[in-house]
Amino acid sequence: MLEPLRQGLPPLDPAAVSNAASCALPARYEAVREARLFTRRTLDQWDVGDRFDDICLVVSELVTNALRHALPGDAGTTADQSPAVRLHLMRWTERLVCAVRDPSHETPVPRDSEDYSAESGRGLFLVDSFSDSWGWHPLAGTLGGKVVWALFRLESVD
Known about the structure:
It is globular and about 40 Å long. α1 (30-45) runs antiparallel to α2 and α2 packs antiparallel against α3 (123-130). The protein has helices spanning 30-45, 52-69, 123-130, and strands at 19-25, 85-91, 95-102, 133-138, 146-153. The protein has 3 helices and 5 strands; from the N terminus they run βααββαββ.
């Protein structure tokens, strides 16, 4: 079982973040496309160098996993509820974190699969392969659920 991981995360001091963006995503698969477009528009404004495509791919996988595995069948939002899934992008000088919040308390579990041609089941493998580190942690309080995050080291601009 994958234990909640917090190591490798940047400090959560909002003053240390140079850029941040967030968007609510509806509980439907079209939200993956919306997350990709949001990420591309956001990263176009930030200098992330050659990590652009890696970050976009990982965001797509994290959002897909949240929609596929973390939402109950009747998921959605009502006026008095926060969105089912939320994407956060946070950039520091030399690193970027993408984090996806969902309502599930279930541990994200990478699948052991020898079938590399399978069309599903490799999301966390891709996250692990294209990010510098990743993990998850449970949320406390009224939000509940969890956050699954991926960290990317960025080249420093001299």
